[in-house]
Amino acid sequence: MGLTQWLLRDLLWLCAIGCVVGVSAFTIFLYALYTSQNTNIPKWRSKHTPAHLLVVLGSGGHTAEMFSMLRRMKLDPSRYAYRTYVVSSGDNFSATKAVEFETQYLNHVQKATATDRKPAESYTIVTVPRARRVHQSFLTAPFSTLRSFWACLLVLRGQNADQKRLPSSMVSSYPDAILTNGPATAVCIILAARLLRLYNFIQGLIPFKSLGGEDLAPAHYQLRTIFIESWARVTTLSLSGKILLPFADRFLVQWPGLEGKRAWKGMRKTEYVGMLVD
Amino acid sequence: MAIQDQNRLMKLCFVTVGATASFHLLLQAILDDRFLAALHEANYTHLLVQYGKDSQALFEELLSKYPPGSPSRHSIEIDGFDFNHAGLDREMRLAQASLDEGRNGGLIISHAGSGSILGALRLGVPLVVVPNITLKDNHQVELARELQKQGYVIASGHQEVSVAVGRAETLRARMLAWPPVNGASQKRHRTLEQVMSDELGFLD
Q: What is the domain class of A48-132+139-205+218-272 according to CATH?
């Protein structure tokens, strides 16, 4: 009789400790999100430092909108000197559009500015497995989502099989900015980016480390995430948008009805920037 | 109208249902006596249909009801294809006026996918948007409604698509420039370039 009582008491203690640890971890997590969303990046990068831009592409409409925006903003290939395009497996349309954008638009711009670097060296297209196929069962979905998440982590660390060595002019070994307009892969990429930043931040707190590969940029200056809600969203956020609202560093919307939304009180509000597509 | 005398010129209506989902209701509504009559009435000569991967059988079955030369065909030239992986720019351009290539300005009828909407607006071709009501998460209805309110497109249900042909001629007469010119009210927004620059910490 004594034994069961002991066991019960131990279990209760374990539960209590678990709860306390869980709640404090959750609070720290929320606080980290809160401070991160309310901190602006100082102007630390000189104007001519080349940057690495990662663009997440998705099914037909998302990809078409993304390139429409990049053309309209006149993406400057001398500033965003290296570009990585992430496509989901089987999405040939997006890969084709990326090549088309690079060879027709950017190559043309580069010629005009008399840079004679070959375009093939300044971009890559990487493929990650899909998080969930259209008719996939919800039972296997968590596993494929994990696989997709892992692939995204590797891409951000430059370890995908399709990736080559970055040009030595890059400040960071990670992409400097991540731009997406909301396909499912975007959720994986942005969460993976935030996890890497958290990891690097914690690592930065520990003295006596430095295992080579020192980055010049502080952890939270890297992997900046910009989410642009699809132009097709007029009054409600997409599912990706709802999930990423507390995680993206900047959340841009293209219709006034979506302006000022936020994950919860105190968090950064969505910014209405007018129509970005053309 | 002057077009009446130019019956030799091609005038094409391009219908697209998109790549991802089938849209049988729209196919049924356009391969229909009323719709073909409306096209004929507005001097159309051609109807080109992008019917989607799994709808070839339906397209051919519907088409067989209107054999060439039959009165219900209204002498409209009809053709169709499943999808074009390189995009639909070339097909859309067939609806754009080009006197050199012997074409009057036509019409594009689209499921409400943003890619096809933007494509048509860029070309300056009148656009009728028919949201696919069979899809679950239908935010496209809002987009169609909003763009109609601003005067860029005609939003229509699939049942009323034959009426929309006539409405498209009114739209053609007062097409607005695309992309919208950013007015004074839009000046204060940060541009995408500025937002990216903020996040990267570029010095101004």
A: alpha beta
